[in-house]
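ok, trying the design again with the full structure, not the truncated one.
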């Protein structure tokens, strides 16, 4: 296990311990790595699993313990799934600010992304009715510290405008708060690893818990995988069908990057139909013109 991953694992274990967990199960490799640092800083009592398959299975079923709903600001940043909060607009703004500060102070999390320039927390209205959740910052987002500002982001912005809204009316966030490292000298972006997703997940859970929008929109496979801790999510099968996350209606749809790769009306229409459902769900008026967007004659 490399040092960064080891540090991130220890950080996660400490969070679970703070949340009241007594034991957790880890793979043989993790167990051996943690055993060697046990004397210096005792982590949780860990139990070794027997196989990688068993490890995967348990990874799916492990849930961070719930924390008190009465303490939104003091909640450990990596709290994960916890009881819903009911905050007013000013409290939401303060809680988000506090969460952003907590994440940027997490040196071990930061260290997992050694080429990232900026933390990309999220942007928009703290009391937004609609929250969009993407995968991870890319190069443009990393440079500007704001989610969805590159090509895919510009398309997302157009989609939001087509709904009759502005970016500032909604909230936009990602599963990861830093751009996943690419090999030095290479361009482009890569899909986050399972470990990057697992370590980041509590933060997006906490953002959703604070904002509590009327509807969530999960953009692409990684958003679904990150939120629901599924293995590979089949967005083609899940898109267009409402599900729930933290008791909030969630609409899975294609990532705008997919539409950039497949810029045909039939695919745009699918995403648009998903967004029409979102508009109806939060009570936005849908005009006849809007209803017909991307319908081929
Ligand atoms: N893709 C994402 O998933 N998120 C961003 O912020 C940018 C591109």
């Amino acid at each position: 296990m490399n040092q960064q991953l080891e540090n991130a694992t220890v950080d996660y274990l400490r969070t679970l311990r703070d949340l009241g967990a007594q034991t957790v199960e880890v793979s043989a490799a993790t167990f051996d790595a943690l055993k060697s640092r046990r004397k210096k800083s005792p982590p949780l009592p860990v139990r070794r699993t027997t196989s990688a398959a068993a490890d995967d299975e348990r990874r799916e079923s492990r849930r961070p313990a719930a924390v008190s709903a009465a303490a939104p600001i003091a909640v450990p940043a990596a709290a994960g799934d916890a009881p819903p909060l009911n905050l007013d607009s000013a409290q939401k703004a303060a809680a988000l600010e506090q969460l952003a500060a907590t994440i940027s102070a997490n040196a071990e999390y930061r260290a997992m992304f050694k080429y990232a320039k900026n933390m990309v927390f999220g942007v928009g209205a703290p009391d937004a009715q609609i929250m969009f959740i993407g995968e991870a910052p890319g190069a443009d987002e990393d440079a500007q510290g704001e989610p969805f500002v590159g090509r895919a982001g510009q398309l997302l912005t157009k989609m939001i405008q087509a709904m009759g809204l502005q970016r500032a009316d909604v909230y936009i966030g990602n599963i990861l708060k830093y751009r996943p490292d690419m090999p030095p000298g290479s361009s482009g972006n890569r899909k986050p690893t399972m470990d990057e997703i697992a370590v980041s997940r509590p933060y997006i859970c906490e953002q959703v818990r604070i904002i509590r929008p009327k509807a969530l929109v999960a953009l692409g496979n990684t958003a679904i995988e990150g939120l629901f801790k599924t293995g590979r999510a089949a967005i083609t099968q899940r898109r267009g069908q409402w599900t729930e996350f933290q008791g909030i209606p969630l609409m899975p749809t294609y990532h705008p990057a997919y539409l950039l790769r497949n810029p045909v009306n039939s695919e745009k229409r699918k995403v648009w139909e998903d967004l029409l459902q979102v508009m109806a769900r939060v009570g936005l008026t849908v005009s006849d013109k809007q209803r017909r967007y991307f319908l081929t004659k």
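Keeping the full-length input from now on. Residues 194-211 form the longest helix (18 residues).
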